[in-house]
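S.,

Sequence below, as promised.
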Amino acid sequence: MASLLIDTFEDDKPETTVRIPLVVLTIAAKLIPRSAFQAMEAQGINLQEVIQAAKSGEISGQILEVVDHQKKERVLISVV
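The prediction came back faster than expected:
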């Protein structure tokens, strides 16, 4: 079953990992860390479009990486 995977890192050390099955992602979207959601929006990524594309098999793998060098934070968003 496909999932949306969100990994957050601070100083290149894993901080948080969230795995959300796509079948419940619409409901679970409220649980996505705010920083990850903001990172997607800042990059022009529409979560609903990602969900539909992932469910249909159109996309997979890493879809976004955001690095804040000043805060030494990194967010990876993948469809796995």
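The mean pLDDT is 85.

Coffee later?
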